[in-house]
């Protein structure tokens, strides 16, 4: 029974990825162009998310700075989820915790930068506030969400990018988010360094 359950996870994940490939290739390509335009003009990517999505934001920032699969110059990126002192300062000062990422966006973000926000539901209050702050700074917003895009989808402008995984289960959505981020990193590298055979 347990082994069958495990096998079903693999099957379900592979099936979703197969069916999502065509639907998500266009928005992921748009995200590649947004990040590329940002970093080649001296801008930076600010990445954020909650829980497991926070870890994905940190991993993406690491791929930008330390490299993905090829050697290349560092790309400016910062995970807004990584500074525990800053993240808990709002709680300690009885400030609105929903502003924890927005404050960082207002402090660090500039016109031409990109905000990368990851959320399964698209309804996280702190990501909604960060998106509004990014728009105030004239930044492009790239959002990775689940099926509906939630409230985040409604906030996006024409120049923003929505990568909405067509599924409701959090584990499946996060698995596709991880793949989408890999595609994003690979796409940026391919545009910067030229095409390379995928081993």
Major sheet: size, sense and barrel closure? 5 strands, parallel
Structural class: alpha/beta
Task: Please tell me what the overall shape is.
Answer: globular
The averaged pLDDT comes out at 94
Number of strands: 5
Low-pLDDT stretches: none
Number of helices: 7
**Helical content (DSSP H or I, runs of 4+):** 55-70%
Order of helices and strands: HEHEHHEHEHEH
Alpha-carbon distance between the termini? 35 Å
Rg calc: 17 Å
Please state how the strands of the largest beta sheet are arranged side by side: 2-1-3-4-5
Strand content: 5-15%
In terms of topology, how is this protein built?
Layout: H1 2-40, E1 45-49, H2 52-66, E2 77-79, H3 84-92, H4 100-108, E3 114-118, H5 125-136, E4 140-145, H6 150-155, E5 161-164, H7 170-193
Parallel strand pairs: 1-2, 1-3, 3-4, 4-5
Helix pairs in contact: 1-7, 2-7, 4-5
